[in-house]
Amino acid sequence: xxxxWVWAHPHAAxxxxxxxxxxxxxxxxxxxxxxxxxxxxxxxxPLLVERGEADVRHHQDRLSRADLLVVQFPLWxxxxxxxxxxxxxxxxxxxxxxxxxxxxxxxxxxYGKGGLAGKRALTVVTAGDRAxxxxxxxISGDIEDVLWPLLHGTFWYTGMDxxxxxxxxTADEVDASTMAQIEADLRVRLEGVMTxxxxxxxxxxxxxYDHTIRLHDSVAPGDEALSAHRQSGSETPG
Length: 238
Description:
Belongs to the NAD(P)H dehydrogenase (quinone) family. 27% of the residues lie in helices and 13% in strands.
């Protein structure tokens, strides 16, 4: 199996830097080959000006070869760092990641289908918030809702299987004993990354959505939250 590890943090000597070392080492120890894109150290240009530039094609080739995409970043203002957003803007191009036609209907494949179908996508996220604030009823919102644009609007939209975020909270207060547990948890998570259950987002089919791409009234009746776009209250096998 082959993984592409994309990370965005300005300081290599940081918690994120250590997570990157542990994560890549854990994959390597279980037989993975790993390609790494360090957006800050590589000086990736996040500005989308022209499509199809040479550096974008290179990154697309690297993504195409991956069975697993790991995207690692600190949570800044409830989103990803600008350089990572720019990487997605430039690399996930029309005709490559989306707007890929269905060979049977000619319509664009999306939401569970698309140019990146068959890949799994895991986010490794650090946050200064306490765990409860990024959970159900937390003031910051549940992490899966906070990252909805990435998990559903990017990964699922382009056909990838999104996995629940691997969240490290209280990131500014990590001591040695806490770090040891964080490292162990990440290793365990990566050992089972290809067999764990994906987030069970609904596919864009007539069974779930009407012609306006709105959920049928009979689907998750009374649920006006993002959870309505999941097929159940729990996750289903991917």
